[in-house]
Amino acid sequence: GGVYQVHAALADSLAHPVTVTLELTPTPHQYVPPLTPMGADVPFGYVVPVVRGRMTGRVSMGGRTVELDGTGYHDHNWGHFRDAAWDWGIVHAGRFSVLYGRFASSADELARQPVLVALFDDKGPRPFVLTGDYAVTWQPGGATPKSIDVGFAAGMDSLGLRIDVGRRFV
Questions:
Q1: What pTM, to 2 d.p., does this model score?
Q2: How far from the centroid of its chain's Cα atoms is residue 169's Cα?
């Protein structure tokens, strides 16, 4: 019916029940069809059926339930990922979504790869762009980015994006 549903019932490390119920309703025209990145020497693929959607649901654990209502994202990959390095993200800002990422077989190779950037609005995606104008500033200790800067141009249009990381979830 065009809506992704997730239901899970499991236990935490102390055998307390945890239940999750989520629904993700895609925003029209915001998807990336299945693809195999250019130059890949191992077979793998990637698809983003929901770049942006309305996500609702609840998570219950320890006698407490958290209701969820916000913006969601869904992607899927397949293939061989041993020793793979990913640098991928999504930013939702107003009516815009920016998807960016790169993939390589090592962290050293990843640092030399251009970044694929896609801008989406209510009409769908703009032309995808590969750019080398990409930098990550790390928090002390190197586990969490402090900021991510991306710049790209397509024809007469250009966009600079700075993502300041205020918090992270693991």
A1: 0.77
A2: 13
Residue corresponding to tokens 């007469």: 156
| CA 2/CA 53 separation, integer angstroms | 11
Among the residues of 21-119, which ranges form H helices?
Answer: 107-112
CA separation for the pair 60, 19 (Å, rounded): 5
d(CA 101, CA 116) in angstroms, rounded, equals 5
Cα 7 to Cα 18, 58, 135, distances in angstroms: 11, 10, 38
Token pair belonging to 139: 């928090």
DSSP 62: T
Closest CA to 131 of 112, 147, 151: 151
**Residue 136, token pair as written in the block:** 């990550």
Q: What is the distance between the alpha carbons of residues 17 and 134, in angstroms, rounded to a whole number?
A: 43
Cα(147)–Cα(165) distance, integer angstroms = 6
Q: How many angstroms separate the Cα of 141 from the Cα of each of 60, 137, 145, 166?
A: 33, 11, 10, 16
- Condensed to tens digits (0 to 9), the pLDDT of residues 85-133 reads 888 889 888 889 989 888 887 888 888 888 888 889 988 898 788 888 8
Q: Which of 90, 87, 129, 89 is nearest to 108 (CA)?
A: 87
Cβ neighbours around 25 below 10 Å, total? 14
